[in-house]
Amino acid sequence: MSIKNTIFISHAQPEDNYFCSWIASKLRLLGYNVWLELDDLNSGSTFNAKVESVIRNEACLCLAVVSNAYINKLKIAYSGVSNEANLMLQLARGQEDFIIPFQISDFAVYNLPMQFAGIDTINFNDNWATGLEKLIKFLNKKNIQKVDKTDIILEEWYKSIKHKSTVKEREERYYTNWFPIYFPEKIYIHKPNVLDWKETYKIPYTFLRCKDRIIGFFSEEECKKYIDVFSSDTYEIQSFFSNFDLDLSETEDKLKLPNKLLVNLVNKIFRNFLHSKNLSKYELSSKKEAFYFDSLPEESNRVSLKKYKKTNRTINGISNEYKWFFAISGFANLYPFPHILISSHLYFTKKNGELINDPDMMQSLRRSVPSGWYNRKWFETLLAMSLKVSEDNDFWEINVGSSNLFKIASLPYEVVSPLGYIEPQNAE
């Protein structure tokens, strides 16, 4: 009797093919035998015989990838998803841990389909890497037999999405989403002599408040144009790159963790600058803000990347009955060099501009609309957004003092690889 060593993945097609290709490639790299159907063989009213045979005769574990699309298809009698789930549940009787549901959409665990009630669930919705770590621990504990297989992730990924890839011995350049930042030479700490801290709002430059002091890139003379100042300290910007306490004048107090304060100041400068450019914002699940251009005329929406020898890109668009807006959020880092990590997001409204209040719908659109975007399109749209903010200049130039500029490079940091690969033919 043959040993069952196959991990079967049940999922909604084509909505969740992207995630399932990712998880399958990771498991195969670790040596597991994975069965994932991406051809939608069971899309009709009949239950594909091959799928049934794999679940009955080969599967030692079934992973049910539960998304909003999966839940909807479970409700359809005799659908492929419904038939898979029913067979898995039938075989699970008397077999411990035969089914493991994955949650990949934003819904409460208690809203899982009743078919999986009481079964331990692994949450991939918050973080895929964390979910994978929990799954690997479970597989190790269950001691599922591995096969002698050492697939390369990139090769497995392109195989799963029906493309062939070939690694080439040629130098290629790749861009990151790390945008270098450039500081003024000096940074200042002022102790305002005010009765009401609201007086400090008169200062037109971004600053960070720290107890009874403010930190910014404007000098004592500049600060005194707007408020009365009790004392000031001047430092070389490099002094704020460490976590060593800094001595303050007129007191025995010390400024603790200057590197953390500098990061907070840069983050605030980043946000305030985008506000000044009249970008709209929305709150991410992490409570951070993402910024986007709400309404742009057609001639302004298409950004030319000719200076970088790339195609034009639009930063807003329409998909069926919805509008999408390319949005960015950022977080500063000082190491290995000063930069802002700018992340890409998509925000949606209805075609008439009406807001979408259903978080499940918003999440579904974020997965489905860009499903055909390859890395190049994501990057070039991010580059277009950066150029739009900089007004087609090489830097975002931000006034942080009357004669001081804080700069963010419009073009991100690049890395050079000695190897390259052939991209999919239909990659945009």
Main features:
Rossmann fold; alpha+beta; six-stranded antiparallel sheet; five-stranded parallel sheet; elongated; 428 residues
SSE blueprint:
Elements: E1 6-10, H1 17-29, E2 33-35, H2 49-58, E3 59-66, H3 68-74, H4 80-92, E4 99-103, E5 122-123, H5 128-142, H6 153-160, E6 167-168, E7 172-175, E8 178-182, E9 186-192, E10 208-210, E11 213-216, H7 220-223, E12 229-236, E13 246-247, E14 254-255, H8 258-276, E15 280-283, E16 289-292, H9 298-301, E17 302-303, E18 313-314, E19 316-319, E20 322-333, E21 339-350, H10 359-368, H11 375-390, E22 395-401, E23 404-409, E24 414-417, E25 420-421
The tally of helices reads: 11
The CATH class of the largest domain is Alpha Beta
Helix-and-strand structural type: alpha+beta
- Count of individual domains: 3
**Low-confidence runs:** 40-46, 424-428
Could you name the CATH topology of the largest domain? Answer: Rossmann fold
CATH architecture of the largest domain: 3-Layer(aba) Sandwich
How big is the Rg? Answer: 27 Å
SS elements, strand count: 25
Main sheet: strand order: 19-20-21-8-23-22
Q: How would you describe the shape?
A: elongated
Overall mean pLDDT stands at 85
Portion in strands: 25-35%
Separation, N- and C-terminal Cα atoms: 49 Å
CATH homology group of the largest domain: Toll/interleukin-1 receptor homology (TIR) domain
